[in-house]
Amino acid sequence: MQYRLATSVAAALGALLLGACSSNPEATSTTNNAAVPDYWPSIQSPIARSDEVEKKVSEMLATMTVKQKVAQIVQPEIRDVTVEDMREYGFGSYLNGGGSFPNNNKHATPDEWIALAEAMYQASIDDSLDGSTIPTMWGTDAVHGHNNVIGATLFPHNIGLGAMRDPSLIEKIATATAKEVRATGIDWIFAPTVAAARDDRWGRTYESYSEDPEVVGAYARAIVTGLQGDISDGNIDDQHVVSTVKHFVGDGGTEHGDDQGNNIADEETLFRIHAQGYVEGLGAGSQSVMASFNSWHGEKLHGNKYLLTDVLKDKMGFDGFVVGDWNGHGQIEGCTNDNCPQALLAGLDVYMAPTPTWKPLFHNLVAQVESGEIPMSRLDDAVRRVLRVKVRVGLFDLPSPANRSLSGDKSIIGHPEHRAIAREAVRKSLVMLKNNDHLLPLEPNSKVLVAGDGAHNIGKQSGGWTITWQGTGNENSDFPGASSIYQGIRQAVSAAGGSAVLSVDGSYDEKPDVAIVVFGENPYAEGNGDIANVEYQRGEKSDLALLKKLKADGIPVVGVFITGRPLWVNPEINAT
Ligand code: GLC
Fold first, then answer.
1. Residue 466: phi, psi to the nearest 5?
2. Angle of the 267-274 helix axis to the 276-283 helix axis, nearest 10
3. Which ligand 1 atom lies nearest to the CA of residue 98?
4. Which residue range forms the structural domain that includes residue 468?
5. C-alpha span between 230 and 436 (Å, rounded)
6. Are 149 and 62 in a shared domain?
């Protein structure tokens, strides 16, 4: 039996084997004083502070009311906010979460994405109700391409890209993704995730480039550069987007791999293992950081002033803004989703406030500033950071979303050049685990049986964060322009005069020359992917049975394993 760990997220094993397998550092006491150790570096962003930008921001700040300022730091989600709410409040930004689409329509066209962006923008600059003309910004998760949009190019997930060891290709992927996002009128991507996944039981392992902080750092720099483009003039052009390095900090190092769990690393380990993506990503000029759900020694990052302010802003010199993660502020002790001054006081700058709680949160923040519980200086600093990035991304100079250079150009979505980059990335992310008797490469003019439930299932081969949040509930017809693994094999084999027959259960009439069995994990995202044990199909090894059956029939078998992380598949590898 031959093994090719299939794509998308495979080769984590490769990353695992190549990365230094470090012992899990023991907890030691953490520093709570503001004397930040010297190993946290001061970062020189390629976007230098500009007197002209600061003057423009100061002039805006000087005219803003408390409500207008608070609106800049509350970020609702498109399922909970209307265009009229935007007109009344003038939110500084809004988002669509995973599996969230204009008009709640999974099959929304690029024109519908643009129409929502245009309507929200026009409502934000309409000062008839809120007195504000500050344009809003739309943020979205482009985890592996513009994955919410039907027809967009999907790239392998980060762990598969990490196995490529090709930062230059990563930069091309980022640039292509930025263009497809801009073609739908969106300005800002919540990417790259720069977690160093240290426990593969974590459901977000596949969103990490590697457990090796050096790989994470190299990729962070390349992705940020690809997403934001050449920013040497201090600006992000309208073919690139604002990037976000996330989730700050230590999300990949929680106990037992618990998503949103507790990281107990000592501070120097936290820096050396989990912060290298920020050193490199901010060094490449990333303009926003997303706070993490996890805790560090029991304290939620969304409320951790030492890390958000003393380390990230004061010591490292980050002058963009810190955005929260999906009501993450509500997890701070003493906070709720609609009432949490603690987050702003700790150094959060923008509350990601999905669900209808954005409204009471807004009014509570206004009251807390007016009462002095939140100093005006902290609110001003947060708003200044948001406006500074808006100036840098040209938001005040660009035309409205519908009139920008790539907007509405449907040819960009799923562009052949982008798909060619994706195919190259898939090839490079595959990992060969075993090749007995040099069965691979196959004679292309063979009679091939393609089996397994991953053979002709584009949703399965794409993983989580694919159209829907969990990557489930999709049909092959939801992926125009894409091809399943079976379709790819059939195309290659037929071209050489061979034949490929699809048989998910491995049954056949005419005995094939070789069988390719495509199997592996079903899609998941975030905590839904947390597992207690890395044994594959623990307790019901149906794929192992299929491999054994075909082998017992005397058919050479190639296994293609699709997975979001390294798993214990020794029985499957050793089935013969
Ligand atoms: C999610 C994720 C984060 C994402 C955000 C918006 O919960 O933790 O990575 O950017 O919400 O969808």
1. -130, 105
2. 50
3. 12
4. 430-574
5. 47
6. yes
Active site residue 325: yes
Count of domains in the chain?
Answer: 2
| End position of a domain, from candidates 383, 411, 439 | 411
Question: Per the domain annotation, does 23 fall within a domain?
Answer: no
Question: Is residue 190 lining ligand 1, measured as CB closer than 6 Å?
Answer: yes
User: DSSP states of 175-203 as a string?
Assistant: HHHHHHHHTTT--EE---B--B---TTST
Q: Please check whether residue 14 lies inside any domain of the structure.
A: no
Same-domain status, 93 and 63: yes
Q: Is 349 in the pocket of ligand 1 (CB under 6 A)?
A: no
> With 60 as the cut, is the pLDDT of residue 547 above it?
yes
The torsion angles phi and psi of 119, rounded to 5 degrees, stand at -65, -45
- The predicted-structure confidence for 67-122, as pLDDT tens digits, reads as follows 999 999 999 999 999 999 999 999 999 999 999 999 999 999 999 999 999 999 99
Strands 74-75, 299-300: pairing is unpaired
In a domain, 1, yes or no: no
Same domain for 464 and 335: no
Going by C-alpha positions, the residue among 120, 143, 252, 131 that lies closest to residue 189 is: 143
C-alpha 143 – ligand 1 centre gap (Å): 10
For position 168, what pLDDT does the model report? Answer: 87
Catalytic annotation present for 424: no
Beta strands in 232-287 (DSSP E): 244-248, 262-263
Residue 416 in any domain: the answer is no
The domain that holds 566 is classified in CATH as 3.40.50.1700
* 3-state DSSP assignment of residue 474: coil
Ligand 1 pocket mutation pick from 96, 101, 141 by most atoms within 8 angstroms of CB: 141
CA of 471 relative to ligand 1 center, distance in Å: 14
Q: How far is it, in rounded angstroms, from Cα 321 to Cα 335?
A: 21
Give yes or no for residue 527 CB within 6 A of ligand 1: no
